[in-house]
Amino acid sequence: MARKKVETRSRLAWELAGRQHGVVTRAQLLELGFTKSAIEHRLRKGRLHQVSRGVYLVGWASLTRERGWMVAVLGCGDGAMLSHRSAAALWGFGSERPGAIDVTVRRHCKVRREGIHVRDRPGLRNRDIGSRLNIPLTQPVRTFLDIATELPSNRLERAVNEADKRGLIDPDSLRAALDDYVGEPGVRPLRELLDRDAFRLSDSELELRFRRIVEGTGLAMPLTKQWVNGFEVDFLWPDLGLVVETDGYRYHRTASSQTRDALRDQTHTASGLTTLRFSHRQVRYEPDHVRRILQKTAANLRG
Fold first, then answer.
1. How many domains does the chain have?
2. How many other C-beta atoms can be found within 10 angstroms of the C-beta atom of residue 91?
3. Are 190 and 178 in contact (CB under 8 A)?
4. Of 162, 197, 232, which marks where a domain is finished?
5. What is the pLDDT of residue 67?
């Protein structure tokens, strides 16, 4: 019977470690029924490898990136999770500071661990907490609020772009979510970035704004949503052989979208058409520029 209990708790320990990237804590092993002597025995035999106070690697001693993150989280105790730049790295839209792991602990504490930047935030809400690869971490919106206080605008912009490409959160959803975090430090830099670039115009809004621009050029109104060379184009002047496209409905484009845009532009050019491409931001905020380019292009096409 005793042997069966040992086998059972060993199996449970391995299952637990498997869910935690091969990392367990002393408290977890004790809770499973391991005695202090049993833990010491496994350390001597190389079945466990201590990596920090009360935290062990199971089976093999090497630290992968994920193992390092799990060691940091488990080493900081209950309510700990990756946050800030470490959470951004795990989500895939940022990078860590060299030699430092960011951990947030959802309780008042004075945790100090070498190589870990610990923040105690007992007021963190449930909706701000998630899991990726079985590693606890802050959700994307909270992560963006945190890194917005640390990163310059250009790097924050790249992070928003990467999160969009990975399907984690799009700029519109991120901007809308900020309304629930009024007064927090990261809100202002995110709003400034997103309000400048991450708006979206519906097809009807875009057409209305673009028509207003065209009215001041002396050009006839273009046809809209016409099929040309196997592609649906946004605006077309058949008499000029001029196609105007507007850059997507998100402020950033994925690599696949850019490839499709390049293909359509190349196809139109090869057929003798001229293609102009304006961003939504230009149509909305830089109408004079759009108007000038349209007028000069039309004049050149007329010869």
1. 3
2. 23
3. yes
4. 197
5. 93
Query: For residue range 168-200, what is the model confidence (pLDDT) as tens digits?
Result: 998 888 988 999 999 999 999 999 888 765 445
Q: Which of 48, 41, 53, 6 is nearest to 23 (CA)?
A: 48
On whether both 34 and 81 belong to a single domain, the answer is: no
Boundary of a domain, candidates 174, 197, 220: 197
Cβ(268)–Cβ(243) below 8 Å: yes
Question: pLDDT band at residue 5, thresholds of 50, 70 and 90?
Answer: low
The structure's pTM equals 0.66
> Tell me, what's the pLDDT at 59?
84
Structural domain span for residue 82: 65-197
Q: Which residues of 241-270 are buried (b: 16+ CB within 10 A; e: fewer)?
A: ebbbbbbeebbbbeeeeeeebeebbeebee
Over residues 19-36, the pLDDT tens digits come to: 788 898 899 888 888 889
Q: Is 51 in the same domain as 70?
A: no
pLDDT digit string, tens, across residues 41-81: 989 989 899 998 889 998 888 889 999 999 999 999 889 99
For the chain, the residue count is 303
Same domain, 251 and 288: yes
The pair of three-digit structure tokens given for residue 222, joined into one six-digit string: 């273009």
Burial class (CB in 10 A: 0-12, 13-18, 19+), 17: buried
Measured in Å, how far apart are the chain's first and last C-alpha atoms? 96
